[in-house]
Structure formats: structure tokens, C-alpha cells
What does this fold into?
Amino acid sequence: MGKINIKIKPKHLVNYSIVLVMLLIGVVMLETGNLRPSIAQLFTQIGYSIILAVSLNFVVGFLGELSLGHAGFMCVGAYIGGLSAVMLKQALGASAKLPVLVIAMLIGGLSAAVFGFVIGLPSLRLKGDYLAIVTLAFGEIVRNVFMNQKIFGGARGLTTGSLTYDTRRAPTLFIVTFIVALVMLIIIQNIVRSKHGRAITAIRDNEIAAKAMGINVTFYKLFVFIVAAFFAGCAGVIYAHTTTPVLYTFFSYNYSIEILVMVVLGGMGSITGSIFSAMFITIVNFMLQSQLSGDLASLRNLIYAVILIVVVVFSNAPALKSFREKYSLGALFAKLFRGKLSDPAKRKDDEAKWDRVPTKIKMDALLSTDLNVDYTPARPEDLNGGKEGK
It folds into this structure.
């Protein structure tokens, strides 16, 4: 019986490692008694921000469709999943907190997935700004519908006081949040690296060519919207367990833009970048909220905007390109593994790219050499190779 070789590249484990490190830090702080309720809340916010950013990146970065209503899917999960959790806790008892949370996430995620299917249908005909307007309208309509329903608390919001967790009563919320983030990463990363992921990126690059190659564009667009909406709904249920009441004002257009900023800041189509940007923006918001209070609270949004502008300019300004390349994480790893990268004999076939193999002549210069050389034969017989009369 032949051996089955399963190759796992280190770069595929980077995203899992980041989430696991955050989870490990939280668990160590919890076991040593150093995890304050505010820090536990921060870990939970980082967890569901990662879920939101990566799931939106699946739509915007990999499928290439601009969605401005991701907070709407989170709103669906928060209200429907939160209400389900309250009812389940009354039925199962106060001791069944973890089963209630898991079941509520499934209900909230599936409810959001249904709305994702509904929003995915217009994407079959709409592109660019038109789809962005539809998703934006969806987010605003959904939160206003929930605001006017008495069963969800009306304008006062959905009361989930018995579900809100802290480190004294139920310190498992941030742990569950990071576990959900890991599950999401496993699913989305494996989809992206599979033939289905290549079909999705083909639709992003050229939809007409993808159709010509036999790719079912309708199926994949709906599939991506449903998967992204499901995980946004799960994030909404987690959010409903962190605050009471759940107010419709939280799921505004501004929050959808904030999630989109996480994606753009981390890089379109970059899962690792989405994770880091979600962590960065969440921590910046947390620090501004905790440090600026009273009269200084009015400066919070201004400072937050200035920080984002500086980071975006630094990440994209052409004048800073050489500085970014010199001091980036990629350059650091290149220095650490310089011996392997500088020796062509140690390269794998797929790593020996022409722009990375060290040569005496720059490949860019070689490819741009002008080969139109004027040639004047010294003798007439050289015109036909020395075979006159033929």
C-alpha cells in the first residue's frame, strides 16, 4: 500500500498560530488571576473582529464584490441568536451556558446565512457601486426592522442581561470566540486553497473568462455570500453575549465601514493581513475608549481617524515603498533564511522565480535589452548564407 504524503507548508499555519497565541495568552492570564474583566472583553472583541474581517475579506478580497452591509449580517445574528439564547437559557437552565451559546451561534449563523442568500442574488446582476448600494441598504433596513419589533425589545434594544459574561461568572466566552475564529480560518483557508477557491478568484479576475471555462458563477457567488454571512451571524451572537441591551445603533453604516477598513488595511485577499488589522483597530479603539473620557471623549473619533490615515498612507504611499520593503516582516524573514534563498541548489522548483535567483546580470535589465541590432554583411554572399544563385 503506497504512502500518502500530506505536505503542510509553514505559511499555511501562520494564521492559526496567531489566533492560538492570543488564546494562550488569555488562558495564562486567566489561570494566574491577571485577567481583568475589561481585558477579557478586549480579547472577545479581538476574536469577533477577526471573524468579521476575514469573512468580509472572503467576499471583497477573494470574490471581488464590494459589500457595505456586513454589519447587517452581524445584526441578524445578534438579535435572532441573542433572543434564541435567552429562550434556551430559560428552557435548559442557568447551568447550560456553553450549550446555549453554541446552539445560539448555529441559529444566528444560519439566520444570517439565509439573508446572505437573499443578498447574494442581486450580486448575480449587479457589480461595483450598485452592489455596494444594495448591501448598504440591506444593512440599514435590517437594523431598522429589528428596532421596530417588540419581540426584540423595540428601540430600547434586546435585553440579554442573563447572557453577559465576565471573568468571575463564565470566563469561557473569549475562549469560545477564538475557537470559532480557528474553525472559520480552517474552513476559509481550505476553500481558498482548493479548486473552489481558484474558481472564486477566477471570477474576481475575469468573470467572462470564468464563465467561458465552465465555472458556475451563480453557485460560487451565492456560496461566498452565504459562508461570509454565516460567520458574521456567529460574531453577532458572541457580541450579544458581551453587552446588554443589544442596540440597533451599534450595527450602523459606520461599523460596516470599520470592518471594510480592516480588510483594506490588511490587504485585499490577505487573511493574515485581515487578522493583524482587526487586532490593531480593536486595540486602538479599546485604548482610546479607556484613556479618553469626560471632556476628552470628543477627541476619540478624531484621533482614531488620524491614526487610520497615517497607517493607510504609510502602507500605500509610493514614496515609502523602499522603506516598507526594507523593514517589512517579509524582509525580516528573508534575512533569517538568506542562506536558503541565496543558494539556487536549495530551492524548490516552485520557489526558483526569475526575480529571486541571484545572478551577475539583473534579470530586469536582461529582459529589457534592445535586441534590434543593425547587421550589415561584409560580403554579398553572406546575404543568403554563402549560397549564391539559390
Notes: The CA atoms of residues 159 and 245 lie 4 Å apart. The domain at 11-292 is CATH 1.10.3470 (ABC transporter involved in vitamin B12 uptake, BtuC). The chain is about 65% helix and 0% strand.
